[in-house]
Amino acid sequence: MRRWLRHHRYAFLVALRRLLSQPFSSLSNMLVIALTLAIPILAASILLSAQPVARQVAVSPEVTLFLKPDAAAGSTQQVAERVKNEYATEIDSVRIVPRSQAYSDLKRDPNWADALAALPGNPLPDAIVITLKEHANIAQHAATLVQEWKKWDEVDLVQHDSAWVQRLEAILSFVRIGLGLLAAGVALVVLATVFNTVRLQALTQREEIAVARLVGATESFVRLPFLYLGALTGLISGLASIALAVLALTPLNAALARLASSYGTRLALQLPDALSLALAVVVVAILGALSARWSVTRNTRF
């Protein structure tokens, strides 16, 4: 066990010395990887910040039933009770908006007051506002209910702006797929960068490796410093990418705060949780080690 620890300690120190012996080259490679990694981190921050907005939109969508103008007296209450009884498990609340109340609200609006004054009477129908419960696929579920309610005799029009909800879900789905492809591209960049770095190191120390083999060094002894080199490159690059993302979020949140305040709301981009970031750094370090192993195996066969 002690021998194994000495072996790994030696390999780690050798890898660290090789990084420090070529600071400009090492920093350049790490900066390329860090900048590349910062992009999906920022994209994940935008996605995570947009998801609560989407959930808030989808939690309580409303459907409005407009009754026919010649509907019998009391039919509004009957339709509301029918909705409550037949769809009790699918709705959250039902609210009746009498035509007189809607007419009074519009008359108080100066944009509509002149137009309504020119009309001989109240043209508005009674309305029933239905708030749906949360559902896994709320847009499709709401569309199904709308088609059912349109068939009722007392109902003249059913209003539900589901198209923009569907567009929002489609945009978020597109962003998730794009983020996955971006992560795959980042993985390729990490592999290619570390592979080339280790390749140059192996070619530079070609004679040293040959001598080590002549005196009985095992393949694991030769490869281990390069594996630590790749892992350290990935680890430091991953930590640097998080720092770059934090720096980038500062001006982005400042601009976003000004935009959100103009709409009377607050919105800020936040990094993914610490566990996800730590896992991402570990994955990058593992990719670096795997790429280093592949490179040293391929370029030290002599």
UniProtKB/TrEMBL annotation:
Location(s) in or outside the cell: Cell inner membrane; Cell membrane
Keyword Cell membrane attached: yes
One GO cellular component term: plasma membrane
Positions of transmembrane segments: 31-50, 174-195, 226-253, 274-296
Domain ABC3 transporter permease C-terminal residues, every copy: 181-298
Main location: membrane
The FtsX extracellular domain, residue ranges: 62-158
GO BP, sorted A to Z: cell division
UniProt family annotation: Belongs to the ABC-4 integral membrane protein family. FtsX subfamily.
Function, as annotated: Part of the ABC transporter FtsEX involved in cellular division.
Name used for this protein in its record: Cell division protein FtsX
Species name: Eoetvoesiella caeni
